Amino acid sequence: MTLTFVAAIVYLTIGVLLFLLGLLIYRENAAQRVNRVTGVLLFFAALAPIMGAFGLIVFKIYQLEQLNLEFFRRLFLLWELFFPQLLYFSLVFPTERKIVRSFPKIVYFIYLPHIFHFIIVLLFKSPESIISLIQPPVSDSVFNLILKPLSLFFNFSLGLISYFYEFHLNFFAVINLIYVLLAVYFMHQSFQNLPTPRIKKQVGLVIWGIRSSVGLYVIAFILPRLLPIHTSDNVVYLITIVALLIGTISIAWAMIKYQFLDISSRITREFLFSICFGIITAVFLLAFYHLKKLVPDVLGFDVPIVEVVFIIFAVLAFHPMINNIQRFLTQLFGKDRTDFRTILESLSHDILTIPDVVTLKQKITSVLTESLMLENVHLIIENGSGAFEIEYHAENKSIKHTFLFNSEFITLMRQLERPVSIEELMTLIDDAEEKEILNRLNCYLLIPLNHRSELKGILCLGNKLTRTSFSAEDASLLNLLSGQIAIALENIELYKEKIAKQRIEEEISLAQEIQQMLLPSHVPQGKNFEISAMNIPSKEVGGDYYDFIELDERRIGIAIGDIAGKGIPGALLMSNLQAALRASAWQYQKPELVINKINNQLAHTTSAEKYATFFYGIFDTQKLTFTFSNAGHNYPIIKTQDGSHCFLSEGGLVIGVQPNFPYQSSQVKLSPGDTIVFYTDGITEAINVDVEEFGERKLIDIILQNPFHTAEELRNLIYEEMVRFTRGTPQYDDLTLIVLRVL
Which of 27, 125, 385, 633 is least enclosed, having the fewest CB within 10 Å? Predict the structure, then answer.
């Protein structure tokens, strides 16, 4: 096996691989200019080693000089279109240059020198053929004597043309060299301006491979034609093989490792598997062919059993080998975290556990920007009130904008329910302000984030840095991702609601603890009176408050109030109220002065919405008098021994609203058998299933019409009637009830 034969096999193999790579890149996204240009580039690159292998086999190995191979020689010239195609490639990769976008037809001028070259070579195989076309026939006639000077002129002119033809054939390599240098310069310049590390790795590998392989070709073929350099055939074969290997492997590895031109790893894996499958099949068939010829030559007769054994061995070995190759390729691509499908699968899983919108935005924008190599990514998210908000950067500052629920843009995205390009969207929107905002976002594709037929947000994707369009696989995966993002947004809403609910419950629990700590631990009792009290906090703490203050041996202060506000703020106000009450009750002997002091303190230390209804009275157990002042609280009810009733209403405004308000007080004389019922609006405003209130009238009827013997008995009676009335309907206010009965 000579080096020539090895070179021919390598040429042919690499040529086929280059052709298949070009076909794969072209078919992946034929609508994309860079894919078309790259596919054609690899086709021309494949043509040279394939035709080179054919030439080596025909002329060097089998030496079939008698064949007329002029057609193949002319076909081989087509490969030189690789050089203008390489220059064209450098103008659109890694980024498309402005001149190509502005004047797309200008690239045709790149091919003019080579078209001129082909015309000359194809029409005139040699200088002699040019002369023979118009050489006058040899004749002794007078006419020939007349044309002879003209013939000399033509011979001189054609001599110049012949010299030009020879010069053209020898030095057209200079044009190719210039094309190579320009292409390398343009690619290097574009590479320096690339923004992201990933695309730099992808492009850098491809540019290095092309630069190295083309550079080796220049050394092997172009420089010897321009300079007095002689290289042997073996050196040329070796340099060519290395050049082809570098170029092919760099492009293939860029596809495998970095998804060159967005070729998905799945397609690349299938491509490599097909190649390996073909190679293994060819090896087995070749081995079977040689074995079939070798056995009769060695043994002198045919042994069919050997062929049967080989076939059985091939069947047994073929399947494990294919499985191992498939497993290797799966591991190779499965561990690649730059594969878009792998990244999106991981992202779809990760975002479902993100608890807040800010982190979700950062995760989505960073991953999509890096994996798809996008200029920008934005998220427009529903804010919970129906409007949609977005934050973006412009003019070195952060700008927030809100799209209303019924805005033209949001309405369109809600109706479309599909990805839409910015060009299409602009034709559907008339609002100039919304158009301006969308233009500032610099979006290319907008994807609605729908879940359960509700628009949760909009994913805005900018252009790819490679200027390639979104492939069908990109669109499919992004569509799946949009559903996951919508679910993640709903999960965040539910999580917020859960946290808010949990916070409220914790606040209520803490407020209830504070409230219970502030309520009296025991109820005063005496020989000629009894008191029974009840406080049942609701699920939403309403701030009911009551207190007993034993001022001296015969006087007892009784207070009841309802704090405005719920939760911790209400509990803090209640604590403030208790402190003010206890300080004022010992300082002042009259209820109106106590309330006035409390009112001034609350009015000066709290905001206007922090107020309370409040009732304070002093019961003299010896004189059986009850002096009181009512600051906007529910009127306590007195039931006298003779069955009549009255209200304790004298006082003034609720406390905490108007400082220095002139509160009034009043005094009633009590007799044995009289009863006073103090209560909060949790009693009278309790509702039933028909949304009817328990009411003050019903409370009075219970007090007046039902016989009772103790304060506790009346308290329980009122509570039981209220429970019976509400019939299990949830109540959202505290219930406080105090019964004072004179014995």
Answer: 385
Question: 0.85 cut: is pTM over it?
Answer: no
User: Do 447 and 458 contact (CB within 8 A), yes or no?
Assistant: yes
Residue 511 lies in a domain: no
Instruction: Name the one residue in this structure whose structure tokens are 């914790």.
Output: 506
Q: Which domain holds residue 406?
A: 340-495
Coil, helix or strand at residue 384:
coil
Same domain, 121 and 37: yes
Look at residue 570 and tell me if it is in a domain: yes
Cis-peptide into 94, omega within 30 deg: yes
Expressed in percent and rounded to 5, the helix, strand and coil fractions of the chain are 60, 15, 25
Per the CB < 8 A criterion, the answer to whether 262 and 471 are in contact is yes
Cα angle value 645/647/652 (rounded, 5°): 170
**Tokens read off for 50:** 């394939």
Tokens standing for residue 248 = 């092919």
The strand pairing partners of 669, in sequence order, are 625
Whether residue 364 is contained in a domain is answered as: yes
**Least reliable range by pLDDT among 203-217, 237-251, 436-450, 630-644:** 237-251
Q: What is the pLDDT of residues 708-740, one digit of tens each?
A: 889 999 999 999 999 999 887 887 788 899 999
What CATH number is given to the structural domain containing 597? 3.60.40.10
Q: What is the pLDDT of residues 383-399, one digit of tens each?
A: 888 899 998 877 778 88
Number of compact structural domains in the chain = 4
- Ramachandran sector of residue 311 (left: φ over 0; alpha: ψ -120 to 50; beta: rest): alpha
CB neighbour list of residue 484: distance below 8 Å, 6 or more residues apart: 347, 348, 351, 352
Please name the amino acid found at residue 303: V
Beta-strand pair 651-652/625-631: parallel
